[in-house]
Amino acid sequence: MSWVRSCRSRALPPWPVKAPGPRPVPDRQCLQGILYVLHNDIAWQLLPLELGFGSGQTCWRRLEWWQKAGPFDRLHRILLAKLNAAGELDWSRACVDGSHVRVKKGEPTGPSPVDRRKTGSKHHLICDGRGPPLKVITTAANVNDVTQTLALVDSIPPVAGRPGRPRRRPHALLGDKGYDSNPNRRELRKRRILPVISRRGAPNIEGLGKLRYVVEQTFALLHHFKRLAVRWERRTELHDAFVSLACSLICCRRLKRAAAP
What we know:
This protein is α/β, with parallel strands linked by helices. It is 42% helix and 15% strand.
């Protein structure tokens, strides 16, 4: 696939020339093995050797090394820049929301308030007005959504693709009553972002749901990757690597639809 070649040439770091041991499995095969696990949610040791991906341990170690080097976040920024250049990003508004994920292993975890206090984590997502994910943060399941509002806004990567400085701020931020916070509203206004957030004890803002549906749609696409629907990674950085890859795939699919005649 073209995006795999782009990932390898522009984002993945080269393997050390003087690495000890036998000749390593090529990056392309390792990346395909990682994507196979992301889509199918199988144990690393069950990765089929006949597909040429190398052993599960090989792919796991390559994923760990790549995550330390940061190529997955760079790939996400590259694809966001391409979407921005194609006019597929809507900076007039951004949407935030959270979604619970059941956890089998790993940290951070906490009692899920929506799953009978079973151990879980939560994905906090911010996307633009058309749905491409800008950033995902993983926390324990009992972390309140409102505490991650500013962290999501400040973690939006600089998105190039158009003349001028890279874009990092939407004009408005849309959220439900779970994000109601006067201090956060003041901080958003300092960042020149208009908070469009319903208040507790008051009727919802008219028409807000019709604008916020894109964040629910993006969560559905994100959790369509079976490895993210139930969390198995003990280490947060490895889970975040899968999340970044999933965000890149979502952006890549949207870019392909935009380029289709």
